[in-house]
User: Fold these one by one.
Assistant:
Number 1:
Amino acid sequence: MKNNTKEKKPIPFSPTVTSFFEIVAGLTIFSLGFFKEVFSPPYEFAEIKKHIDELGIKTLPIVTVTGFIIGLVLAMQSQPVMSRFGAESFLPSMVALSVVRELGPVLTALIFAGRVSSGIGAELSSMRVTEQIDAMEVSAVHPYRYLVVTRILACTLILPILTLYVNFLAIIGGFIAISLSQGITFHQYIDAVFRSLQFSDLIPGLAKTFVFGFIVGAVGAYKGYNATNGTVGVGRASTSAVVMASLLILITDMVLVKITVIIWSQ
Amino acid sequence: MVKVSNLTKSFGDNLVLDDISLDVKTGENAVVFGRSGTGKSVLLKCIVKLLIPDAGEILVDGKNVHSLKEKDLNELRKEIGFLFQGSALYDSMSVKENLEFPLIRNKKEMSSEERDEKIKQVLKAVDLENVIDKMPDELSGGMKKRIGLARTIITEPKLILYDEPTTGLDPITVKEISELIKELQKDLNVTSIIVTHDLLCAQIISDRAIVLNEGKIIYDGGLENLTKSDDKFLKDFFTNEYSR
């Protein structure tokens, strides 16, 4: 009997695994390009300022609401538990520490990713499929420097500022919840907050927002800049940018928390 | 001006350009015909290094495009204009900003007043002075092509590559744009390579016709002989084009 079985080439990994490693490698190389290009002239200061303004204005309303609600809900949720242990007086400190060290930076970054990463992905992918990026390249303008570096830099610089703003609003939100239930004055609340907060609480939380901002900008730009398949590619770039940026923020946060715990505990 | 030698380009298993060679002389207007997917746009993109060929050499103004360093390549690109099929206007910028963009970056010696003057001049050349503050999405297809053309010529390039400059336009606009291209070429004395399906456009602009089929150049000569050719492919192709 004739053997019809064709000899198949061995596939070392499934296509999903291969595609995962392709994305990781692609994103890493793409992001490393930033460090090479950010110091190369011409410096597009006007573009960076424009993006900072746009990104700030775009995200301000949503982070304002979120920041305020984080503090409010955190205080409201924690109050019954804290009172069960007779630790109600620690409520302002607990709200401040949770917000400044973890909730503020991570939630702001996630909201920022949802709002900005998708926007950058959609904008750049639309420019890619309509040949605007090619047009830029042909007119002797470095598109990566003009489109990508400026956006990543704007994201990296604006997210820490937004986080400080969210932290402030969350602490105010916490005050409203606690003052309504415990009748605490603003002076007492702020005093308790600042007695518990140390410099070592603020710095790690704020430092990681620079990394998160970089991730949001880099992922959005990577997905948009490398988009294919016309308008379908635009939609895909926009949604996958949000998913990938959010996931990377959470994974990076886990790593950075571990690092800061090691550094600050010494 | 442009010398292409043994150019080969494929995408995966699809061989798009198969060892093609051509020489376009300074001041010449060469029109490239061919069915969709025969590599006409790929040829243009290889000339400006938007695509890297698998093999072959491309010389523009005596410089080997694919062996130039980034800085030298950009210097060369300043001498080349490229009109994209969809115009590729920057949609986040107004018409004025679109035209200003290459000037700010490539003509740094120009003052703001000189730039404004130049913008007015090219807008007058394409007969669209009244749209200077409009955004690209407020323009019609024909207007976009004209503004794209204005952006292409604003830096006064020596070589202009046109990727289907009249696709999707009505015959009157095709004639207008083709005449405009011809007029601009005469005034600026540039070399042009025009990729098109449009015989009307080619008849107005071309000095020379090149036909690509299955990755090879099957005709290179005058447009008159081309339309009278006995070759089956050429006959079919141009009869169908005429009968549209």
Note: The helical segments of chain A are 15-37, 45-84, 91-129, 132-138, 143-182, 186-196, 199-225, 230-265.
Number 2:
Amino acid sequence: MLTVTNLRKSFYHRPVLNDLNLQIAAGEIIALMGKNGVGKSTLLRILGRISTANSGEVKFAGKSLLKGDSENRRGILYLGHAPGMYPPLSAKENLGLFSRLYKSPTTEPGIEEVLEIVGLTIQADDPIRIYSQGMLQRLKLALAMLIDWKLLLFDEPFTGLDEQGRELVEKILRQWQSTNRTILLVTHDFEWSWQFCHRLVVINRGTIQYNFNIAETDINTARDQFRHLLV
Amino acid sequence: MLIHLLKKEFLVELRSKEISASMLTFGLAVILIFSFSINVSPAVFQKFAPGLYWIMVLFIADLGLHRMFSHEKEFDTFSMIISAPFDRGLIFLSKWLAGTAFLVIAELLITAPFFLFLQLDIPVQWGRLIGIIILGNAGIMAIGSIVSGLAMRAKMSEVLLPILLFPLVSPNIIACVKATTAIFDNQLFATWQTWFQLMVTFTVVFGLAGYLFFDHITEE
Amino acid sequence: MLIPNKKIRVGYVIMILLMAANLFNVLLKSPMHPAQQWAQKIFYYHVPSAWVAFLSFFVVLVAGIIFLKTRNYFWDRVGLAAAEIGTLFTILVLITGPIWASAAWGKAWNWEPRLTTTLILFLIYIGYFMLREFGGAPERVARYAAILGIIAFIDVPIIFMSVRLWAPEVQSHPQVEMASQPAGIMSIFFFSLFTFTVLYSGMLWLRIRILNLKAENQ
């Protein structure tokens, strides 16, 4: 459903992504790994049409993503490091606003339901400015549950989450997994990706160095093989 | 979609009051400085007043624009907005229209003290004056929203914004001052019609340019 | 050898000869203006400078449009080179204009519309270079500079209109007057215009070359 061909991106004349190629099939959950600064977040931001690429092509559901109509990026949801929602507005208001902007209109009960799942019911009407990092992360999850996406780009889902929060992410991921949804997530947790993802993609020097099918690979061999690329 | 974006601008402002508070207090401070630094008789002041008024408006517009765009960076909401599946020209339109509205609201509260403190006579054609002020604001905010988009991700955005904005907006300011002066002197519309046309041209040209270029401006 | 590239060496020689011929023409061959005497001669440099400055900003516009279409960084360098050289000639216009004005009108600056427009354009381009300097990553700034170049160009006619109407009592440059001058003045003027255009093309070509070499080394 997503094809990335010869993607290049430089930053201050330094190549970040260098002829990167990647294919994602519908229903896959892919863990994107690599050292800091190898371009994982940059790739996600390009796919979310937030950053520009220097050259290359990305096709999403058969349509050109980087050029062409804004409608071509419909179905992609990017969740970055930052909360991405308006600090003076409440959780409810933010969710209502963004679900409309992402063309997945919802109702008040719908919003209350997802807030209940992520455990933010009590603080639902507080401005998110006073939220803790973990609460903001839960809010992002709530948004992902509201919006009707085909491809989720999630940059480090676990940032700032407590044990309960981690379990919550895992529970929701299991649901998405069982309903065949496509997710590309950046993570640093090797063991975890073995449990939850179908494929492991390791970026190094701006290209994809390893592309593992997790079910077919033994975790220990894999770990030995590219430990040097992860730490 | 535009209506949701506009609602968002107003709701965020209603909650944070950042833009209106900064524009309002700064405007009042500027009026105070004007009255202290230009100490002449009210009759003479009447001649300077249109120019001073638009200087003040330009200052507070610059301040408001900076806040309007910098609050998008605080939680990186701008990324979420530009990633959403709609034409990014609409983001420009929402900033432009909301910015004009905020400026008008601030002026509603500043214009009375301006006339009061500087001891000016209220022009006979006050209805036309309001029209010219709104049109002038729309022109300033059209080019201002483009320039803010260009400057918002820069290192010194608060400095770059006025440096780029003031020369670019100068024809509109000239027209605003000329039209306002004519209204203060109670002249017929025919005598300042050209200035009115120039303001309309400026506003339409840069409103359109902003709508068309914003797609290139937004991505980082 | 000071200049190793043969093409550039030949270019320099042609340029020097042309400029020398132009100077000779202006100082010794051109007829003396009865009223303005020597002061009028600055026009042979002032007007071509202005022409080159505006031509250069037109190049910035075209390069900007092509860059946004193709995202080829060569066009970004063309835009930057043209903006730099255009600004240089803008400065020349802003220096030579008041020199003439102080001799002819007794006042160095009197908000003559063309000169005022040039001044505003100069300020816009100062902002342009600041945006390039402080705008962040050069990849992004290239896009912003292209847009600013286009916006500035769109603004120029509006600025000119407004400035001309703003101070209608100020007389424009006596260009009309110049056109009615004998052939002796006009041919020398057009030769100077030609010389400046050649000079400009050469400078632009060299500057783009330097920027290309710099980009290759990065």
Note: The two ends of chain C are 27 Å apart (CA to CA).
